[in-house]
Design brief:
CATH architecture: 2-Layer Sandwich
CATH class: Alpha Beta
Structural class: alpha+beta
Strand content: 25-35%
Strand order of the largest sheet: 3-4-2-1-5
Length: 103
């Protein structure tokens, strides 16, 4: 299962972690993993293109993004990724689970 943890403070995303594998199909044919990977790499590309201050760490089956300096533009990008992930979860909740923590 893909596990997503979104950490917020005052309704602003401070950290986004995605890890695991959906296991909804054989490796290389898993459309849920492909969709989540596409969202996450698009998110990274948007942040890097806009030169926004974030720590991004990508390892096998794990993506970690930590906000270093909050901005409205960054929050809009992160909110879009959050909504995309939640859309996948709505129809595939046996393969992806999202937890939101308020700190």
């Amino acid at each position: 299962m893909i596990q997503v943890v979104i950490t917020k403070s005052n309704k602003q995303i401070k950290c986004l972690e995605v890890k695991g594998h959906a296991n909804s199909a054989p490796y290389g044919q898993d459309l849920i993993c492909a969709a989540v990977s596409s969202i996450m790499f698009g998110l990274c590309n948007a942040i890097e293109e806009a030169k926004l201050p974030c720590l991004i760490e990508i390892k096998k089956n794990r993506f970690l993004l930590q906000v270093e300096q909050a901005s409205q533009k960054l929050q809009h990008i992160l909110y879009t990724a959050e909504m995309q992930l939640k859309t996948i979860e709505e129809s595939n909740n046996t393969f992806i689970q999202i937890k939101t923590l308020e700190v």
